[in-house]
Design goal:
Rossmann fold; Shikimate dehydrogenase (NADP(+)); six-stranded mixed beta sheet; alpha/beta; 2 domains; oxidoreductase; NAD(P)-bd_dom_sf
Length: 286
């Protein structure tokens, strides 16, 4: 256990509807294991009755209270960017931030979601066909996942979002980074699903606070693989239906763990034990 002479970290998570998050426990447990006095707090916009517009005040308050850093989740991963002093190369390329390090009077934005999803995808769906994939959602998490998918050799990614301008902006970003033929704006969901080998949901639909499915269940078929980034609950309605009809399925647990591994390292300067953090995550139940 850490003693009073141990290094100390004060971190937090800003987002909406995050009371079920396992992130605080993962960080604090790994801190204990490494002899670090680690305190991790939830800053839940819903619980506080706030909107994303409160971000400037929340960041200022965190700096004044001596926070080491903050994780950022829905709906703030893009809204936080104008409030930062620097962006890592990864965050700049993706256009979304999920980790902010507060150091030397500066706010430095990073993105560990891309690495987290890629690592989980490699481990959880290592041999799936990747010629054509449909992605639901083009927000902050969606941008990171899209970059990860194309880095993991998805041939063509078709992006859908209820806010078409978001999908257009993400597709433009992907084409500039990976080439014009690697990304498409989703227009006809039924046709895209019929042609796809895989489906990834990066929308918040399926979270405990937003139950449901991001697309009609009848568009799924057994030959598809399906991936989620939501991890509370682990078994979303989408994954439940996908498994029932025989799809290969990947829940959001691996992404949650591996993005936290990297965030821990950014906050502490110490390498995290990914296997230990995975085991702790699993011990927390569904």
């Amino acid at each position: 256990m850490p003693d009073m002479s141990s290094p100390s970290v004060l971190a937090g998570l800003i987002g909406s509807g995050i009371q079920s998050s396992r992130t605080p426990s993962m960080h604090e447990q790994e801190g204990d294991a490494q002899g670090i006095r680690y305190l991790y707090r939830l800053i839940d916009l819903d619980a506080l009755g706030l909107e994303a517009s409160a971000l400037p005040d929340l960041l200022t308050a965190a700096e004044r209270m001596g926070f080491t850093g903050l994780n950022i989740t829905f709906p703030c991963k893009q809204a936080v960017i104008p409030l930062l002093d620097e962006l890592s190369e990864e965050a700049l390329g993706i256009g979304a931030v999920n980790t902010v390090v507060l150091k030397g009077g500066k706010r430095i934005g990073h993105n560990t979601d891309c690495l987290g999803f890629a690592e989980g995808f490699r481990r959880g769906l290592p041999d799936v066909s990747r010629e054509r994939v449909v992605q639901m959602g083009a927000g902050g998490a969606g941008a990171a996942v899209a970059h990860a998918l194309l880095r993991e050799q998805v041939g063509e990614l078709t992006v859908f979002d209820v806010e078409t301008e978001k999908a257009e902006a993400l597709v433009d970003n992907l084409r500039a980074t990976f080439g014009h033929n690697r990304a498409r704006l989703g227009i006809d969901l039924k046709a895209a699903m019929q042609a796809a080998q895989g489906l990834v949901n990066t929308t918040p639909v399926g979270m405990a606070k937003l139950p449901g499915m991001p697309l009609p269940a009848e568009l799924l078929r057994p030959e598809l693989w399906v991936a989620e980034i939501i991890y509370f609950p682990l078994e979303t309605e989408l994954l439940k239906h996908a498994r029932e009809i025989g799809c290969q399925a990947l829940d959001g647990s691996r992404m949650a763990v591996f993005q936290a591994v990297k965030a821990f390292e950014l906050f502490t300067g110490q390498e995290a034990d990914a296997q230990r953090m995975q085991a702790h995550f699993a011990s927390l139940g569904n």
